[in-house]
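fold-stage: in
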Amino acid sequence: MCGLTSEILVVLAASNKVMNARATIETAPLQAQLGYTFKKLELLNQALTHRSHSKKNNERLEFLGDSILNCVVAEMLYERYSDLDEGDLSRVRANLVKQQALYEIAQTLSLSDYLRLGEGELKSGGFRRPSILADTLEAVTGAIFLDGGFDAAKTCLRKLYSIILAHVDPKTLGKDDKTLLQECLQSYQLPLPTYNVTGTSGAAHNQQFEVECLIPNLKVAVKGEGASRRAAEQAAAKLALIAAQKALPQELGKPKKTRSAKKKAAKKVATEEQLNLKLKG
C-alpha cells in the first residue's frame, strides 16, 4: 500500500512540475517571431492561457482579437485586390480568418510550445488541437492591441499574412470544386455538367456513394466517391475539372467573356471616353 501511495505522489509531483513549467515558460522567442515586444508581459501570458488552466484565461482576449483580425485582413484585401467586388472580398476574408487558416499561422509560430493548459487538456493533446491554437492566435492579437494599440496589432498581422497572401488566388479561394467546374464551363459558354449516382455500398449508417460527372461536349466522364452524395459529387467535380482543363485548350481555344465581364469592359470604355471628352473640353 505504501508503495502505491509513493507512486501516486511521484505522478502528482511530475504533473505539478509540468504545470509549473508551463506557468513560467520563456516567451522571448515567440515575441521575436511576432515582431512585437510586450510592455505588459502578463497580457501575453493571459493570451496563452486556456480556460482549462485557470479562471484568468484568454477567452475575452480571443473575442477582442477576432474583431481586430477581421478588420486588418479586410483592409489588406481591399488594398491588394482592387478589382474584387464586395461578395468576393467577403469570401476571401472568410477563408483567411477561419479556424484552419489561423491554425496554420499558429503552427508557423510554434504556439503549441507556449500554451498554458489544464492537466486534462495536456493529457488529451490539447496543444495540438486546431481550435485551441486558432483561438490562442486571436487572443494574442487582442493582447497586442491592448498592450501597444491598433497599429501594433496591425503591423504584426500584416507580417503574418503577407506570406499567405502571396500564394492566394482570390478567384478560387473558398470555392468548392463544383463551383469551380461550373465557372470554368460557363467561361467557355458550355452546358453545365450532370451528376448521377452510379452506386452505393456499405451499411445504412456507413454508406459510400459513387457519383459520375459528365461533360458531353468535352467527352469527360469521371467518377468520385464519398461518405455522402454531396461529398461524392465534389470528388467527381474535382476530377472533372482537371480533365476539362486539359481538354478545353484543344477543343475550344480561349475562353469567351461572360455577360458580366462584357458589361464591365463596356463600362470601363465608356468611363474612359467620358474622361477624354472632359479633358479635351
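fold-stage: in (second)
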Amino acid sequence: MALGLCCLAPLSSQAQSCPALRGLRLESTTVISAQLVDSGKFVPPIRVRRVSPEFFTAFNTLPAFCRVQAVARPSSDSEISIEVWLPATGWNHRYLGVGNGSFGGSINYDRLGESLRSGYATSSTDTGHRGRASEAAIDAFYHSPPARSYFSSCSNGGRQGLMEAERYPADYDGIMAGAPATHFGFKTFITGDFAAFQKRGGKIIIYHGGNDRPEANLNLFSSVRGRMGDETVSNFLQFYLLPGMGHCGSGDEPNDFGQWLRPGDIPQNSLFSALEEWVEKDVRPNGVIATKFAIDGNARSAVVRKRRICPYPQTARSNHLGSDSGAANFVCP
C-alpha cells in the first residue's frame, strides 16, 4: 500500500501532531521517538568514512520536519532501524523511499536530506526494506494517502528498488534504480519478473555508468525485453547507459542527470523528474541532458560539458542545426 502524504497544515498544528506519533501502535514495531526538528537544526551522526562529493551534506539548510524513529523486530533474531522524515510545511504530496548504498547496515541520511529539501515525505531503514512504520506515521501525520509514491537509490539501493518492483508491485508508482548490484558478490534475488508492476502502471528507470561494469544489468534488461517484448517494455521500463561514468556518478564525462535531487529540477536534465512526469502525465522520457560540473555534484560550479543520453539501445544523433558537439545539437531518435 502506498504511503500517505497529504494536505498542508500550519507549522504550529504539525508541531503539535508530531509528538503524538510516539503513541503509534504497530505490530512488531516500536516507535522510540517522534519530535519536531527546527529548521537548520538537524545534525547527522558522525561519519565513519569520507563521503562522495556528490552526497548531500547541507543539513543546516533543511526546513523544519517531524522526525520519527522506530525499531522493527519481525522475528526474534532481527532488529531493523527505521527513520521517517515528514516536512512540517511545503511538502509536495509525494512520498520517496530511499535505499542503502554498498552493503547496507545504516540509515541513508544523505538521501533523506536531499529528499526532504525537495519537499518529499521520506523514509529509510538500515536494511533498505520498506517499513509499515512509515505508512502509519505518514498517514497519522497528514491524514491522507500520497498522490504518488517513488523509490530512488543506487548500487545496493538500486537492487532494492528492483526487488520492490518484483516482490511488492503495489508499493511504488515509479522506481529509479541506479547501478543495481546484480554482481560484486550480492545474492541478487532479481529475476526481472516485473509483470505485476507493469500491469498496475508502474514505471522503472535503470541507469548505469559505462565504466562501472554494466554488463550484468544490460543482460537483465535484454532478458526482460526478450520475455515481455519491446513494445510492452518501452511503455514501463527504460535503461540509460552513461559513457565514461563510474559507480552511481563521477568520471571525466557528463555524469549528473538527476540522480541527486535538487529543488527546481526539470525532466530535460533530471531522469528522476522525467520519471515523475512519466508516472503522473504519461509522458515517456525521450532522453536526458547529462552535465559534467567542474566539481562533481556541485551544480553551482562551472559546466565543463554536456551530453544528450538516449534510452538504451538508442544513441543521440545530430539535428543538423548547429556545427558543434553540444548537447543542444543532438536528439534521440
